Each structure stands twice: as structure tokens, then as C-alpha cells.
Amino acid sequence: MNIQFHEASGVFSLNTAHTLYQMKADSTGVLLHLYYGHRLEGETEYRIRYTDRGFSGNPYEMRSNRGYSLDTLPQEYSGSGSGDYRPSAVQVLGENGSRTVDLRYAGHRIFRGREVPQGLPYVRGNEETETLEITLQDPAAGLEVRLMYTVFPSCDVIVRSAHLTNISEKTLTILKAASFSMDFPYGNFDVIHFHGRHCMERIPERIRTVRGQMSFGSRRGMSSHHSNPFVILCDRHATETTGACFGSMLVYSGSHLEEIDTDQAGSVRLVSGIHPDGFAWQLKSGETFETPDAVLSFSGDGLNGLSGQYHRLIREQIMDPRYRGVKQPVLINSWEAAYFDFDAEKILRFARAARDMGIGMLVLDDGWFGARNDDTAGLGDWVVNEAKLGCSMGELSDRIHDLGMTFGLWFEPEMVNEDSDLFRKHPDWALCDPDRRPVVARNQLVLDMSRQDVVDYLYQAMCEVLDHARIEYVKWDFNRSVANCYSHALPPERQGETAHRFMLGTYQLLSRLLERYPGLLIEGCSGGGGRFDAGMLFYCPQIWCSDDTDAIERLEIQRGTSYGYPVCAMGSHVSAAPNHQTGRVVSLHTRGIVAQSGTFGYELNPEQLSEEEKKEIRQQVEMYYRYAGLIREGTYYRLTELDGGEDYCAWMFVSPERKEALVSLTVTHARANGPFPFIRLQGLEEHMWYRLEGTDLVCSGAALMHAGYSFPLTFGEYASHQLHWIAEDRRKENV
Ligand code: GLA
Questions:
Q1: What is the pLDDT of residues 70-84, one digit of tens each?
Q2: For labelling alongside 439, which of 55, 153, 370, 574 has CA 20 to 30 A away?
Q3: Whose CA is nearest to atom 1 of ligand 1?
């Protein structure tokens, strides 16, 4: 068993391959956090010290022991208003107006597998999965909290969530319900969080924890471009290859909050979950509220080690197994090639040209439905505009299939334009406060996904399109932040539920479509990567990484994304030069190498390519198919440090058996007479010999990893190198 309860000491131990997590309920029933980190033998309660700190009060039953305070003890799920002044995990409003929560241990159980949360994406689990459920209660508040700890031993991951039940006869209102909180008694950390904006998502910022509170999060009704629901706490000296790192990632796509608090004694608390701003969930007697999963992981091998654990967990336990090992075709997307200006003939010309270069799928982006000729109209009217296309979608998709290609289509289900038949018929289906004009963004409003009738309409409308054409792929977009989060279907006292119910409606629609079309691949998107999170990855095995397709910008975006998310999830395309977002000119070679570290596709007008470019693209496509397994299933390593000051960005993939490695390097700043770009490879087998493909150079894994490899100098901006190393059997050679 990977979960143990030691009766004599009362210590719970959660073991994974390389980590240990320990806690215990003390004599007052407070669930104390003891340890999370390297796997080790024995118990760690000795770490907890008690002292009388001024202004840190004592629970009534411990009033004679001034060294015992909830304000200073490391806890597993912090209450509120009961003498712990650090950020709370849970806040509840009782009918009597009391807001205090003081949770004490009431029991536990250990079982195989896990309980699956209702209506939410989750970490799936397999035969090695075990769960510890610890029940805490506060009879005065009428609240029971079941803390769920599900262990994924080989991924070195512990998944936490909380189930809150009203055990009183009265109604409770939950004001905050974090997925977890965790205290590090002796923290001396850096925090890495992932900020950004439209066209520049998931940029890591590494900062020291400060005395007091730091918080990151999104109030946008979406996980957002601006702050990803993933944070890392690491040793101050941690690098990509060394040091202790802890990660916290929510499996959720709505508003979220990550709080990091360093208290008077230097202890660090990390709390993460649904954003409490605007959140108020009514819980009637006997009802339960389940939080999203939070994925916790620890690595003692630096940031690359931690990333590898998240990549593996997401690939094996979050993404739908139906996509595992499936070779997706290289696609061409019509957006940057045509924007709204197309008809079926033009799309077919793109398809023919793309097919001749070996591209296997055509994706028709925005503009094929309703009165959608620009972004002012049509969202919500999911009816094919046959007049614009010049044929039905069925006919267009047949003709694309006749070329030997598959076909994909863009939708933005959760949105509506005021200029649409849907809005004219159902103005109350858009989120909007009574007696107010709504915030408009990109000329659109947000549909009220908390309403079952809205979800049902979208399901019907999308099925109508999907049933009448051969469609293998859907791009699911979400092009604005949510505001005026008021539902006309909920009573006033339940308006604080709208934002979370919105996410439940979206997840329901995704689930129903995937159930009806098991072969369909849905690519997530939100103005690029505004909803790039583990919640969406449960349904969509890939997500468009950014609307910024500039290869040099993409180096930053994809590198930042890789801290938490696997490369096989990153939607990345080669687009035109000069780039449409930055005007930068980058060689087709470099654009190909950068886009290759992702799902790979094209987003340019193939009719505007020269014969030479077409030839190069044909080679790129072949190359991608050759390396796709290595890129999608291999272990990914960042080879350049965050803020390392190098004029290049390098990364690599190693096959699971370590017999093959693909190393890529792009120069980001050309220098006269500069240093040779130098890297140390990672993840190879020290004693294996690797041949650099196309050369006579053979090096041991140890040499490549310790002595490193330097690249020749290049001339001109943004040159790229790609090296393919293949293990060879030296013994045979010596015979
Ligand atoms: C978003 C997407 C783009 C494209 C447009 C269409 O911005 O990220 O790729 O689909 O919408 O309107």
C-alpha cells in the first residue's frame, strides 16, 4: 500500500516512487501537516515546534498551553476566524451570520481508486491509484469537509480536493473552498508563476517569497492568458537540473486563485482553488460541494524533473486515453491564410496545395456560419452559410476527403453576437446584470452556460453541423473574458454560483459531444492560449498555444508552457513571413523547428509559396512524421536556464528507452564574433554511445551530458540547428 496509517503515532504517510507526504491529527483533532518532499524512512513529527508567539491566540481547550496556536501550526486545510490569521482554505457563512470555521478530525478511510468528481474534469487514475479520505468537521458551523488525497506513485503526484457537506439543518453559503492548502514549516523559497497577455502567454517569472502575501489568479471566468493555475515553489538555488521544487496545478478552467503567504515565523502557506471573489455557493442541508482537483508534485531534481512529472501525469492520467499513441495528421488552418474572406473553392485550392506538400488535414476556421463575415456578427448561429461557401458543408468535407485529407471546423460555442438570430430570439441567454448594459469585447457577449437550455441548444446546433459533414476535428474557441456574470435563470441568492456553473455547463457540453462523436478530436483555444489548463486538457488533448505565431516569440511561450504542460498538447503552426503579429522575418527552417515542438501544422496561404518553399515544407512534414513519436512520447528537457542570459534557446527530447534524442537550438540574438552556443544534454544513458546522424561523430551519453556540446557560429538572425542522436551498439563495432 502506498498510503499508510500508523495507529500508534496517528501519522498518515503517502508514498510515491520518490516522495513522501505526512500528516497527523493531534490531540485536539487539528490535522497537522508534517512533511512533503524526498522519500524517506520514519516519521517527521519531530519537526514541529511549539512556542508562545504574542498575539497568536489559543483554542479554548488549549488556553492553558500558550505555545499551542492555530496561527503558528502547519495545517492541512486551514479554517477561518478561529485564530489562524493566514489565508484560509475555506470560508462559510451560516444563517446566523457567523463566518468562523474550525475543523477537527472526525475519521478517515483508505480505498483503492478514487471518487470521481461530479461534472468536473479530473485526474483519471489506474490500478496503482489509492485514495486517503480524511473527514474533518465543525459541528458549530454545520460543516463537514472530506479531504481527498489520491496518490499516483509512479508519476510522483498527489491529487488533492475537498468535498464540503452541510451537516446542519440550515442553509450554508460557501464563500471560499480551496482545493487544498499546504504549510511548509521551514520555507525559504522562490516562486515561479506564469503570467502573460493575449499573444504572450505563460511567461515564467521567478521571484523570492516575501513576508506577507503574494497572490496570483484570474477573475476572468477563464483560467486566462494572464495567470495560469500553476505555480512552483522551489529552493532559491534550484536550477533546471538541481534543487527541490514543489508544483501546484489546478484541473480547472475558470477563475482561480493561488495564494502564497509567509508568516511571522517564516513558514509558507500555499492555497489554491476557485477564486473566491464573487463566489457564493448555497449548500442546503445534506448537500455537498466538490472542488476541482489540484495536482501536487515534488521533485528533488530541479525544474526539468518537476516538469517531466507533470507531463507524464497529464499524458497518462488527464488526457483522454482514446488519443494516446494516435498519430494526428499535420494540418493547415485557414485563419491566417484567409481570415473571413473565403469560399469553398478557395478552401479547396488551399487543400490541394497543402495535400501536395504532404499535409493531411484542412481546418476551416472562423467565418463559415450565420452572417459571419467579420467579427461583428453571427456568433451563436451555428448554421452553415451555404451562400458564402457556395456549397453545403457536407459537400466541402467530401471534396476534401476525396483529396485524401481529413477535415476540421472552428466553433466558439460559449459566445454570442448581439447581431445574431440567437441573441434576437433569446437576449436573456447572454450573461448580463438586470438594468445594465453588458461589457462587450470583440463585439461579443458571453452565453449563460449555467443554463441547461443554453447547453442543450448548443449541443443540438453543433450536432446538426457535425452530423451532416465528415468532420474529424473541432477547434473550440473562447475569445473574451467573462464579465456581468449574472444568470437570468438563477435566483438572486444563487448568483454567486453562476461563474462555476458556467464552467460545469461548458464541461457538460464537451463531455456530451465527445460521447456522441468518440472519434472527434477537439483542440482547445481561447484567443490562442487563454484557457491552456489541465481542465481543458481532460477533453482536448491539444490547445492552441498562442495567437502569436512568430517563431521567436513562440520560443518564450512554448518554453514557459512546458514548465507544466507536455509538448504534445501545444498547438503550434508555421505561419507566414513577415509574421502577421510582429512583422518579424524568420527563415522557414527556424519556423519549422519551433513549430515542430508541438502539434505541428501550417497557418499560411499555400498559394503564395514559392516552389522552393513548397519543397522545404514537404521535407518539414516528412521530418515531423519521422520525429512525431519522439516529440509526443519522449521526455522533454529545457537546456537553457530561465534568465540564463544566453543568446539562444535550446531544448531536447529523449525517447523512453533513451536510444534516440532530438536536440534543437535557435539563436535569438546574432552577435559578431560571439561565443559558441554551448549546451549540456540531459536524460541520456551515461554508458551508451550516440552517433550524430549524418556524421561520424560518436560520443558517450556521459560526454554529451557532462562535457557538453558546442554549436558552430552562424551568420544572420534566428538561425536554428537540429541534431538527431541515435544510440549504437559499440560492442558490435569492436568485434
Ligand atoms: C481566435 C483564435 C484564432 C482564430 C480566431 C478566429 O483569436 O485564437 O486562431 O481562430 O479566433 O476568430
A1: 999 999 999 999 999
A2: 370
A3: 527
For residue 46, pLDDT over 70 is answered with yes
CB 668 within 8 A of CB 590: no
In 3-state terms, what secondary structure has residue 462? helix
Query: Residue 296: is it exposed, middle or buried by C-beta count within 10 angstroms (0-12/13-18/19+)?
Result: buried
Show the domain range for 53: 3-318
* Stated pTM of the model: 0.98
Q: Looking at the 3D structure of the chain, how many domains does it have?
A: 3
pLDDT at residue number 734: 47
Residues near 468 by Cβ (< 8 Å), separated by ≥ 6?
392, 393, 394
Residue pair 166/278 in contact (Cβ under 8 Å)? The answer is no
pLDDT tens, position by position, 348-397: 999 999 999 999 999 999 999 999 999 999 999 999 999 999 999 999 99
Q: Is the CB of 76 under 6 A from ligand 1?
A: no
CA 198 to chain centre: 16
Rounded-to-integer distance, Cα 456 and Cα 413, Å: 11
For the domain that residue 729 is a member of, what is the CATH number? 2.60.40.1180
Beta-bridge partner residues of 166: 143
Backbone angles phi, psi at 431, to 5 degrees: -65, 130
Q: Please check whether residues 327 and 310 belong to one and the same domain.
A: no
In contact, 351 and 396? CB cutoff 8 Å: no
Ligand 1 atom nearest the C-alpha of 339 is 6
State residue 1's pLDDT score.
84
Catalytic choice (115, 205, 613, 616): 613
pLDDT of residue 644: 84
Query: 215 with 258: CB under 8 angstroms?
Result: yes
Question: Ligand 1 within 6 A of 601 CB?
Answer: no
- 571 φ, ψ (degrees, to nearest 5): -70, 120
Share of the chain above pLDDT 70, in %: 99
Neighbours of 629 (CB within 10 A): 15
Q: Is the pLDDT of residue 732 over 70?
A: no
- Does the residue 679 lie in any domain? yes
Distance in Å, CA 332 to ligand 1 centroid? 14
Domain-ending residue, one of 318, 350, 373:
318
Name residue 257's beta-bridge partners: 217, 273
On whether the CB atoms of residues 403 and 606 are closer than 8 A, the answer is: no
Known catalytic membership, residue 533: yes
Within-domain flag for 429:
no
Atom of ligand 1 nearest to the CA of 544: 8
- Whether residues 186 and 235 share a domain: the answer is yes
